[in-house]
Amino acid sequence: MSTLDEIAKLSGFSKATVSRVLNHSPHVSPETREKILAIMEETDYVPNRNAISLSKGQTQQIGMITMDLSELILRFMNGFVEISGRYGFQTIIYTTGGDKQKELQAFEDLKRKRVDALLILTSVNDTNVISSYCKYGSIVSWQRMDHPEIPSVAMNQYDGYALALEHLIERGYTRIANAFGRPSSINTRSRRLAYEQLMAKYSLPVNEKWYYSSIYSIRDGEQVVKSLMERTDRPDAILCSNDLVAAGVLSEARRQRLDVPRDLAIVGFDNSELSRTLGITTVRNPISGQAENAFLLLAPSLLGRNMELQPLSFSLVKRETT
Amino acid sequence: MSTLDEIAKLSGFSKATVSRVLNHSPHVSPETREKILAIMEETDYVPNRNAISLSKGQTQQIGMITMDLSELILRFMNGFVEISGRYGFQTIIYTTGGDKQKELQAFEDLKRKRVDALLILTSVNDTNVISSYCKYGSIVSWQRMDHPEIPSVAMNQYDGYALALEHLIERGYTRIANAFGRPSSINTRSRRLAYEQLMAKYSLPVNEKWYYSSIYSIRDGEQVVKSLMERTDRPDAILCSNDLVAAGVLSEARRQRLDVPRDLAIVGFDNSELSRTLGITTVRNPISGQAENAFLLLAPSLLGRNMELQPLSFSLVKRETT
DNA sequence: GCTTGACATGTAACGCGTTCCAAGGTTTAG
DNA sequence: CTAAACCTTGGAACGCGTTACATGTCAAGC
């Protein structure tokens, strides 16, 4: 392994000049540059990343924190890895499994300068704890954090939900049920708001019994249909908070010999792979756009320049369940 | 940001002693240790990761190389991240998108000591090119590499395929078709071997027309069924090289009003999330076990000690398609 | 011809731990 | 009581680039 010092000695120039060549400094004469590059080539030299990181105080690495790796998370990561790669940043994954201590590791790594910045996908630690690390580097989050120093790229769900609703209403569905996720979450609140406002706008019935909460998984979706079947005032459509739930609803509906979408229309959320496989109408969530914005939010601290966020919007992907 | 040097000055001890405390060296008196630890606490000191990496020549980071992030890859990564984390190693992702140059980046990073070792999940570069980097650090691969210095944790598909076949035969299916992947791959060869040997063993017909090749996706699976329907000598079961294909086969079979599994039994491979969702019988591929083994193979170079690989085996997950 | 400035290059300190070797002090065995 | 053995601690070099500041050179400007 040759070092910069060796290159300097072999070429007869100083370390500074060699370093200038490496960093494409304009203050090197073309001949010198040539000579040094030739020697680097010969000796198969590459600069040691750790030495650079140490002296620059930057690692060009960004940490991504997540509890686990779901398809959605993956799409986000993919988008984020993509754009940060374009700017020369590597990404490193911290899967916490929901363990606070393990998650803290990632923040400690920001402090010890293993990473220059952090992206939170899902986190379990207290916002106050997390924000105390802001002084060591930029932190952005996908999930909303409610802290001025930790911006989030989460989108307001109102528009997406409204889009799905308008579509259902347009198709003639009027008795629309909701499978919400975490009851207290901001997402659920804005979805619910969208629902209530739209139903009012079209003078359609709002039935408290058509609200399901804490519905997350395929299994939960199946449960919803089962409980639906015991009703007399059955809804004719159901809006799900994610595609997993929609998949569960769909498979159980079929098992119950419901004709989808005639007896029951189903709309999912996120436009995941699963929804495509199963032909579920869903709301396209521009996840990689959000991922890009996440990086752009880090740009000031990472690249020293502000970058404009791109505007994002939901769109409807019509398939066979509506 | 306090540094080790400051801690040394504040405590009145030398840097060496402070470093010993950090590294849990036994050659420090308890009182000294206490004092130094107290000062570290006070000044909110954490050692700089880059300085450690530079002087130790090790970063405690392992790179994972993949073209993209599919569910299977993810499961492997998850397992790998898990076990390497247990031994204090961070993992960093290199998604190459199938770009040779981008992939080479990862290998260069091994050379520049950004990572201590590399895990190849999928790679597009020539084995000779890759193996030239072995001198800079250990490399293991999931996919078979056919090079003595790059061990692989891929499993021989023979057993898994045989398992599925035995199951089908036991259930009374005799006309069994195959949806293979890449025709020339080792996996396909061993699967085919398993098929031919087992069919011979049970004196069952082997029909060349029941071999499909280059079948990878849901869409491909659907195509297979369509082409099957045009046949008079239709098979009564089909063994798919992965669950995606099986899902395609299943959905098209249903569309064609075939009764699964009576008219057509379907077996997938990998036991992916999708197979569970759709109730497809499949072969459980112990992916996280392979991931662990991948790490264990790196252990000698990373931890300086040999670790025994765990034996792995396929198993059958019986569901509703057989 | 002399000053000014642009440009090429060098010097040396710095970033921050780790580790080999040596030294001073103390305990233990003989 | 002394020599060997051990423990605790320090000194200083090392790992490898980066960078602020200094120096030397040559050409343009007056």
TrEMBL record, chains A, B:
Entry keyword annotation includes DNA repair: no
Name of protein: LacI family transcriptional regulator
Entry-linked InterPro entries: HTH_LacI, LacI/GalR-like_sensor, Lambda_DNA-bd_dom_sf, Peripla_BP_I
Xref: PROSITE patterns: HTH_LACI_2
Keyword field contains Zinc: no
HTH lacI-type domain ranges (all copies): 2-56
Gene3D superfamilies, A to Z: 3.40.50.2300, lambda repressor-like DNA-binding domains (1.10.260.40)
One GO MF term attached to the UniProt entry: DNA-binding transcription factor activity
Pfam families listed in its UniProt record: LacI (PF00356), Peripla_BP_3 (PF13377)
Organism: Paenibacillus rhizophilus
Keywords: DNA-binding, Transcription, Transcription regulation
